[in-house]
Amino acid sequence: MKVIIGSDHAGYQMKEKVIAHLRQRGVEVEDVGTHGEESVDYTDFGKKVASKVSDASFDRGILICGTGLGMSMVANRFRGVRAARANDLFSAIMSRRHNDSNILAMGGRLIGDTLALQLVDTWLDTPFEGGRHQRRLEKMDTE
Q1: Considering the domain 2-140 in this protein, what is its CATH number?
Q2: Which residues pair with 6 in a beta bridge?
Q3: Is 35 a catalytic residue?
Q4: Are 42 and 84 in contact (CB under 8 A)?
Q5: pLDDT tens digits, 17-66
């Protein structure tokens, strides 16, 4: 599995921990930044990740900002992207089971590192159920 990850300054510290965790799991990871805690625009990094998930260069993406809200809003503007903000395990599970989310957005100012790593593992390991949920996903990408 190939995962692309990005954050703004508010998510930088958590992003670094998530990257190390993913690599320890044997996941191929590309980090598109930011690379420090200096203030940046979350939109720039949300677009980098979402565009690469949208064009299928990467299987999944992870975005981290202060709340996860801004990143998810940016990402969901891209065709074929289903970004889900999850700050609890149930949301991470259901975003995969029923919505086949391909980008996980998290709030670096809302959750701790331990929960973030649990969310990442849960999200990566939960399969999409398909069936009636597939029909609903197909309706998302119609004009």
Answers
A1: 3.40.1400.10
A2: 63
A3: no
A4: no
A5: 999 999 999 999 999 999 999 999 999 999 999 999 999 999 999 999 99
